[in-house]
Amino acid sequence: MSFTLALVGRPNVGKSTLFNRLVGKRLALVDDQPGVTRDLREGEGRLGDLRFTVIDTAGLEEATDESLQGRMRRLTERAVEMADVCLFMLDARQGVTPADEVFADILRRKSEHVLLAANKSESNASDAGVYEAYSLGLGDPIRISAEHGEGMADLHAALMPLADGFDARAAAEAPQVDVEVSEEDEGEDAPLITRARPVQVAVVGRPNAGKSTLINRIIGEDRLLTGPEAGITRDAIALPVEWNGTHMRVFDTAGMRKKAKVQEKLERLSVSDGLRAVKFAEVVVVLLDVEIPFEQQDLRIADLAEREGRAVVVAVNKWDLEDEKQEKLAELKEAFNRLLPQLKGAPLITVSAKTGRGLDRLHDAIVRAHEVWNRRVPTARLNQWLTGMLEAHPPPAPGGRRVKLRYMTQVKTRPPAFVIMTSFPEKLPDSYKRYLVNGLREDFDMPGTPIRLTFRSQS
Ligand code: GDP
Ligand code: GDP
């Protein structure tokens, strides 16, 4: 799952129709547990060779007194927060309406990547509406018909370069396409964190690790139930909170877990809840129980968080129960390095959710991981660094022909992804790639975030 696409627009433009077309029957995240509050529908979308998460802001009934406009605006803002790309949809038969302009305005202000789709364009009667759509200043409209499946190739073509940027690793596996990185590149002098949006945090871990206790601590009020019984019914999903001056939205996976009698079912559920939270999160706190740390389930979710490109902080809870703290810490660090080498450099913080000890350090680790995850390194600095790395350890010369690493640039953030233009990229051994990734992590001080590095051929 390389990126998240939100379908945005006023009611009746065809969002649900497109959602159904992209997702088909693969509503991956349907929850068979009754009573889970959800107001954004999401599914696993496919378009050609692209795989992504689709969020639909339409068609969900919510019991609220809010006006339709207010609700749509709020949902849109939330979807924008969660998504990498927003597909703003219009009804081309109607042209641009005042309501469309309201949405366009939100998107221009809040979303980094917006694509514009003029839906219902299956007939020439829509031409005028398509031309009008140019006036929104959101780029060229893509003509589609969600109902008839037209324009899907154009939509694919528009998503492709973005998807490529969002997951440089996936792009390396897909057929090579030339991607223009220049637009992304312009942002290199941008401040480290460009938007003061809440940091999206998920606390994941096995049942009874202390997730609810920790979240209660963070929230500072006893809004969630806690107790020794695993799997108490709770409903909260995302909890907005200001913690030590940082705005966060904390996803309570325990709260999404429903009453389950059978332990096995519970385990399965908490894993899938964890997966879901990981997808929404920017920073994933993997909460371990000091008495049973690094369980299979913990390892799986930590690995998933890394593969999904999330910043990761490992927190070891119930530290108050530990007598031999020094020894235990050494043991934990050893286990961490051995069992989760893919998270090299991620912080390991000891906490007690019960007493509150260590929570300030946890806060700081989250903020820092988030900052690093968003970091952009200027191209000039990268290339200076690359030159130094090449001089210190030249790449191998298989058959007497040295692999040339010519030019390096950061193609995206969240997490940081870099591309190096290379002759014979396939000849570069993994050990050399690791040398570069580890060097990037150390020299640019980027702990706790996955780093993506791909090599593109340029002979
Ligand atoms: P939403 O409120 O934005 O989710 O819109 P819906 O997906 O529910 O669609 C609203 C109406 O527009 C429905 O009657 C759809 O059948 C219709 N519709 C959706 N896409 C198209 C299209 O490409 N062409 C035409 N003619 N109608 C469409
Ligand atoms: P969850 O299933 O991960 O949400 O775990 P809970 O928050 O419900 O906690 C499970 C049990 O562990 C409860 O009995 C908590 O009181 C206990 N617990 C949570 N944090 C700590 C801690 O820091 N120290 C100790 N000693 N117990 C804790």
Account of the 3D structure:
With 459 residues, the protein is α/β, with parallel strands linked by helices. It contains 15 helices and 15 strands. The chain has helices at 15-23, 68-82, 98-110, 127-133, 152-166, 168-173, 182-185, 211-219, 253-256, 263-280, 296-307, 325-339, 359-373, 379-392, 430-443; strands at 4-8, 41-47, 50-56, 85-91, 114-119, 142-143, 199-204, 238-243, 246-252, 283-289, 311-317, 348-350, 405-412, 417-422, 452-457. It has a six-stranded mixed beta sheet, with helices on both faces. Strands 8-9-7-10-11-12 form a six-stranded mixed beta sheet, sandwiched between helices. Helix 10 packs parallel to helix 11. It is globular, with a radius of gyration of 23 Å. The protein starts with a strand and ends with a strand. Residues 28-38, 59-63, 168-196, 222-236 and 255-269 have low confidence and may be disordered. The protein binds guanosine-5'-diphosphate (2 copies). One guanosine-5'-diphosphate binds next to helix 8.
Brief descriptors of the model:
repeat; nucleotide-binding; 459 residues; GTPase Der; 6-stranded mixed beta sheet; GTP binding; binds guanosine-5'-diphosphate
C-alpha Rg, in Å? 23 Å
Report the strand count: 15
Strand order of the largest sheet: 2-3-1-4-5-6
Estimate what percentage of residues fall within beta strands. 15-25%
- Quote the average pLDDT: 78
Number of helices: 15
- The residue fraction in helices comes out at 25-40%
Order of helices and strands: EHEEHEHEHEHHHEHEEHHEHEHEHHEEHE
Strand count, sense and barrel status of the largest sheet are: 6 strands, mixed
Structural class call reads alpha/beta
Bound molecules: guanosine-5'-diphosphate
Shape: globular
Uncertain stretches of 5 or more adjacent residues: 28-38, 59-63, 168-196, 222-236, 255-269
Distance between the termini: 31 Å
